[in-house]
From TrEMBL:
Pathway: Phospholipid metabolism; CDP-diacylglycerol biosynthesis; CDP-diacylglycerol from sn-glycerol 3-phosphate: step 3/3; Lipid metabolism. It is found in: Cell membrane. Its EC number is 2.7.7.41. This is Phosphatidate cytidylyltransferase. The keyword ATP-binding does not apply. The chain crosses the membrane at residues 26-44, 50-68, 80-101, 107-129, 141-164, 170-188, 209-228, 234-256. One of its GO terms (cellular component) is plasma membrane. Pfam families: CTP_transf_1 (PF01148). It comes from the Bacteria. It is a multi-pass membrane protein. It comes from Brooklawnia propionicigenes.
Length: 297
């Protein structure tokens, strides 16, 4: 019943086990990963300082590619996303929302953003009507999940960019979230004993979370008055909120990977994996960055 030809001789057990051993020992290419990270952050920093529309193009590309990776992951477990409305609607929505937020205020930009996302949902539902009846709810849920997880969570960055000194606020966000990851890794690797969610991410510990929150709180308090004109206490609050949000984002991404049975969401970024492998902690933090800086700064 195995499908093996009766005359075929089975290979020795050692030959079968060898590829698996090789796969377990494979790791990321650290120099390539560092080089890729430097290039990405150089583009983000340079575009935010000198050509802000370049950052919006970069953000749109990240959302479109990230949504494609979610589409591919969900397809592997029998859930089919209607992808075209997301790929077409994302650039139209983000560009329009940013422009109107700059010229007509945050409320107008936010309204256009929500309207564009709602139209994407409607277009995905209409697109799925062409398929069979069976599986409609599952596929519709996959499309709505993809829109809610990637475009909805990341799109507030175009509103943040439209705030006063918005480019510095976005840079502040891109500093604090990696600080959270760094604090969690440093403290967790040295002192981590109590697992946070071993069934999702065995490496995460409560000690690591404490280190992440503490470091991000301090960096937020120090840089807030310098970069975005916030009070030190407001910077500290923003740091704490973004650190907790980044941790939740990591856990959500890990849960998706475990449910779909994949290690990396893609291979578009050398040494890192897919776009979603870099966006995980940034996703949940983005709307909270926009909201906290809108209210506290």
């Amino acid at each position: 019943m195995s499908g093996q030809d009766p005359g075929e001789v089975s290979p020795p057990a050692e030959a079968v086990a060898k590829p698996a051993t090789k796969k377990r020992s494979a790791g990321r290419n650290l120099p390539v990963a560092i080089a890729s990270g430097v290039v990405l952050y150089a583009w983000i920093l340079g575009s935010l300082l000198w050509w802000q529309w370049g950052f919006i193009v970069f953000l749109i590309a990240g959302i479109v590619v990230g949504a494609f990776e979610i589409w591919r992951a969900l397809t592997g477990i029998g859930m089919h996303v209607v992808y075209t409305p997301i790929a077409v609607g994302t650039p139209l929505t983000l560009v329009t929302a940013h422009y109107l937020a700059q010229h007509n205020g945050q409320l107008t930009g936010a309204g256009v953003l929500l309207a564009g996302l709602a139209l994407m949902v409607i277009a995905c539902l209409l697109g799925r009507l062409r398929g069979p009846v069976r599986g409609f709810i599952t596929d519709a849920a996959a499309s709505v999940f993809t829109i809610g997880y990637v475009p909805l969570l990341l799109s507030p960055l175009v509103l943040l960019l439209a705030q006063p000194d918005g480019n510095l606020r976005v840079i502040y966000y891109f500093i604090l979230v990696p600080c959270s990851d760094t604090g969690a890794y440093a403290v967790g690797s040295l002192f981590g004993k109590h697992k946070m969610a071993p069934h999702i991410s065995p490496g995460k510990t409560w000690e690591g979370l404490a280190g992440a929150v503490a470091l991000t709180c301090i960096i937020g308090a120090v840089l807030g008055p310098v970069m975005i004109g916030a009070s030190w206490w407001a910077g500290a609050i923003i740091g704490v909120v973004l650190s907790l949000a980044a941790t939740v984002g990591d856990l959500i991404e890990s849960m998706i990977k475990r449910d779909t049975g994949i290690k990396d969401m893609g291979r578009i970024i050398p040494g890192h994996g897919g776009a979603m492998d870099r966006l995980d902690s940034l996703l949940v933090a983005a709307p909270l960055a926009w909201l906290t800086m809108l209210v506290l700064v």
